[in-house]
Amino acid sequence: MSYQVLARKWRPGNFNEVVGQEHVLQALVNALDSNRLHHAYLFSGTRGVGKTTIARIFAKSLNCDTGISSRPCGTCGSCLEVDAGRSIDLIEIDAASRTGVDDMRELLDNVQYAPTRGRFKIYLIDEVHMLSRHSFNALLKSLEEPPVYIKFLLATTDPQKLPVTVLSRCLQFNLKRMSKQQIQSQLQYLLGEEKIESESNALGLLASAADGSMRDALSLLDQAIAYGAGSVKQQTVETMLGTISRDYLFKLLDALVRQDAAEMMRESRNIIAHNPDYARVCAEMISLLQAMAFYKSDANIEPADDMLGEQIISLSERLSVEEIQLYYQIMLRGRHDLNISPDEAAGFEMLMLRLLAFSPDPGQAVEQPATGKKKPVVQPLTTSKAEFPGAANSEDEGHPLDMDEPTRDPSASAASADSPPATRPGSNGAQRVGAQSDLESGHVEPEPEPETGEAIHWSSFAYELGLLGQAQMIFLN
Ligand SMILES: [Zn+2]
């Protein structure tokens, strides 16, 4: 028996088998069961989310020999014909390949003839936005006053390209992209049914790579099964997708948090040795940072992925919200810039160095002379936080300006005094309070103190811009 690709073999045959899209299914089921049927339906959504699948099930429901119902029998002649793609009364048109006005006119000329065997004659037009203007006119004519036995099911990835006159004659349903969880659990289910061994992490990787499309997920799964000689393992999927294990990324982030440049470069080289898809590696890192920001936010939501939860929590507890945002922004811009770097591996390494460059440098904070002329080009912005690590630093030194500050919150001083400038504060609260008082002090007119006057100025400037602003200023300009 010849191998049937998973996407075809597991194409849902009824509404119960469709993954997601509950909002659309509910409306269709209600319409079918109460027999309140419109003559034209438009399904929009990105590729592989089930537009034509749902349209075919709908067609089956309309023409099932047992009667119009949201639960087509699946065994009658009509249902079987639709499933096999040879129903005479279901006319499927791929507008992407048939845009000539003659084709459409010829097809739509037949609208006047009653269905051959079923209840309805159903036109399923896929990628309907690709029709030519003349074809749209021909379609519009049929849409205006169709005979009672005609139904139009239109599908498109780009509804905005449809003429308003067509849109206004259709019931519109917008299909959503599938979530990673929906895709992953469907893959898990299918592999269980197929009795194919798999690792949960491998399926997670495939689900992420499918980017909301179930069809893409199933194609990737087919590929992974072939690649892994009958089983789906994390390592083979990583190689296949050009991703690398998240363990590498965690090591990288850990080195970044510890400001261990040597370790960071070692880990970068380890990653480069795998010759991965760098854009994908960056995307992975970005999604880890996003999970960290989420955990760190007041929403305090734990990462959805239990496998990663602990590591994400432990990393994010050693970073401030601002730092996470800054790293996120750097990675986002960096991924974009990989394309234009002369060599992707070098570009990736440079990106890692950039993460380090924009980190607060504890050592420098200590030895930092107030004038700070060591790295003239980027120093004021990149090291602003380390150079002027806020209340903590100045207070320890009994900074005159801080003492002049009348509105200082005593609890803030206590919190930030607990965290010496050379170490990263363990709790986010302390760091945030520090930042806040820094901002406050920035609003005070600089005292006539020649050495620190400049420092205060920069600190206020940096914080008013915000860390994100810094990154953007440097990268965008
Ligand atoms: Zn049937």
Commentary on this structure:
It is a single chain. The protein has 25 helices and five strands. By secondary structure, the protein is mainly alpha-helical. A five-stranded parallel beta sheet has the order 2-3-4-1-5, with helices on one face. The termini are far apart. 39% of the residues are buried. The model is unreliable at 363-465 (pLDDT under 50).
Count of domains: 4
Number of strands: 5
Bound molecules: zinc ion
Proportion of helical residues: 55-70%
The secondary structure category is mainly alpha
Radius of gyration: 30 Å
The low-confidence parts are: 363-465
Oligomeric grouping of the chains: single chain
Question: Which strand order does the major sheet show?
Answer: 2-3-4-1-5
Morphology call: elongated
Count of individual helical segments: 25
Q: In sequence order, what are the helices and strands, one letter per element?
A: HHEHHEHEHEHEHHHHHHHHHHHHHHHHHH
User: Mind describing the biggest β-sheet?
Assistant: 5 strands, parallel
What percentage of amino acids are in beta strands? 5-15%
**The CATH homologous superfamily of the largest domain:** P-loop containing nucleotide triphosphate hydrolases
First-to-last CA distance: 61 Å
- Architecture of the largest domain in CATH? 3-Layer(aba) Sandwich
